[in-house]
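Homework help thread (please don't just give me the answer)

Our assignment gives two proteins as sequence + structure token strings and asks us to describe the second one. The first is just a warm-up. Here they are:
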Amino acid sequence: MKIGIVAITAGGKKLAGELADTLEGACLLDPQEGQKIAEILAVAWKNFDALICIMAAGIVVRAIAPLLRDKLHDPCVVVMDEKGRHAISLLGGHLGGGNALANTIAEHTGGEAVITTASDTQGLVALDLWAKEQQLVADRQTLTAAAAVLVNRGELRLYAEVTVHSLPPGIIPADEAAFADATVSSSTRFAAPAFFFRPRNLVVGIGCNRGTPAGEFEEALSELFTELQLSRHSIRSLASIDKKNDEPGLLQFALDNHWRIDFFTGEQINNLSSLINLDISQAALKAVGAIGVAEPSALLGAKNTLLLSRKRKWKNVTMAVAEAPFSLSAQVPAPSGR
């Protein structure tokens, strides 16, 4: 986490120096003569993950008001008095790491962290932070609405189609999706009104002819996932044989969707056939020297033996889908940055 520390009084600057020496990734933002705090923070806003402002909270609020965008992009802001008695997590308490930072600097000064986020004051999990750490995908509207249920009712009933080792405070298991507030699943077959959290646990294995454009991969994936009733938000990665690692259309398809591609050698693919029963493709053997591409690369990428879909063929593309191991736990690691 890159931390900027700014102070305006002599006592505040002394404390700022102490914190800068203590906190990893911290540096002082020393105001030049005549420079306004608003000007300093405006420059720092895009360059730091966190800002510690040792001054009155009112000064900070007025200075950052024009800079606010949203909690996914704004730095966290902690306000502290020059005596170090109170560290107020003002902005970005959960995803931004403001609550954790306030606790850290309060511990250093012997002061008290002031945390006002509802889940923390009730001893409940910060749902957005937990979802991020568990690699669950949900839009902001879903996170906000589900978090409101959690803090207003004190619990959130969760149905999960993944392994559950443990759940954090306030989240309780539901035996059926129909009785749950939220569902963790890669499937789109469930009906509203549940909130949906998508686990990143699907690997799409892909084979293709030379020169296949990115649009054909997109059309094939859309058709396949609609038929299988799977959410593309659950795609963790793509996989293929290493002979396709320079295929422009495939690389562009992955880039457009921000998906990683894992490439495997023909030897790795052929060795897999000795462990599990896979159909041998004579066409693949002739073209790339491997028993297949889509199915074995999906399984190798997922590090599992569970195929949700055997290979499907289109004119220039083959695809298969494998499910990777995925589990939920109660642990929420302390954030060190966004």
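The one we have to describe:
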Amino acid sequence: MINKKLILSKRPIGVPKKDTWNLIEEELPNLKEGEMLIENHYVSLDPAMRGWINETRSYIKPVAIGEVMRAGTIGKVIDVKGKTSFKKGDFLSGWGGVQKYLISKGEGHYPINPKNDNLPIYIGSLGMPGMTAYFGILEEGKIKEGDVVLISGAAGAVGSLAGQIAKIKGCKVIGIVGGEKKANYIIDELGFDGAIDYKKDNVIKDIKRECPKGIDVYFDNVGGKILDSALIYLRMNARIVICGAISQYNNVKAEGPNNYLSLLVNRATMKGMIVFDYAHKYSEAMKEISNWIDQGKIKSKEDIYYGIENFYETFLRLFNGDKLGKLVLQIKK
């Protein structure tokens, strides 16, 4: 059998170019005792991938030159040898990387329910984005009924779910998005109370319009000027959750906030969150999010594109805004 896999070929500066990766083909070796062959069906594309290919280490070891590009995956066990962690036919979620096949002993994988026809949901609302939204808004944001919650990147995988959870908990939720289509989506389909289109609106003025009494919680996926704008309108004891900074990932030098003294004046907090810190509680979050989906309280949207050969063009959608919901690359039809 021939495997296709995407190899990191060099460290990018700024926006990655296509030659940052190299798609290669190689023959799969025979399975050894205790190993299984997993066929990847879906690959998760996430903004964090940009940070994983930098040379400097952050919260996770960078992908090494010559290694398969790290990514969350949904796959199926198609062959086993001897006693293995999972059996042939099992569907698994894990860190399979951007490749068609993976030989593994099961490390970093867990079984998912194949009765659910929507397998990509396990790398979306029931995967890392869902866990990030759940613990970010509840544990780090410490939302309570009546809070005014502002979310940037609100039409994305994490932001859209964080906003819906905040609505379930009785908050007023405003989303910052790029484009009229996304603004309509978060209001009409997800139930947000308001939207700010940063592409055409004056963000500072529109935060004041949508949040006239200020912000209790700002859930940030963007960073940069939008974070700086939100800082102006903090209420007393406000909480800012730094989940991501997609506007800064391709910058050689990150743009920091100028209005940070608002934290002092309002006795507010600004804290970064990494979803892996909550790994011991994932099952709790998955159960509750799954129940909300079954009850119709949460809508999950996956934006799916096909073909490992189209990784680069699909990856760029993370940064040009040409996506809605969770971005997924389908490997197998």
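TA reply:
I won't write it for you, but here's a hint about the kind of observation we're looking for: The first strand starts at residue 2 and ends at 8.
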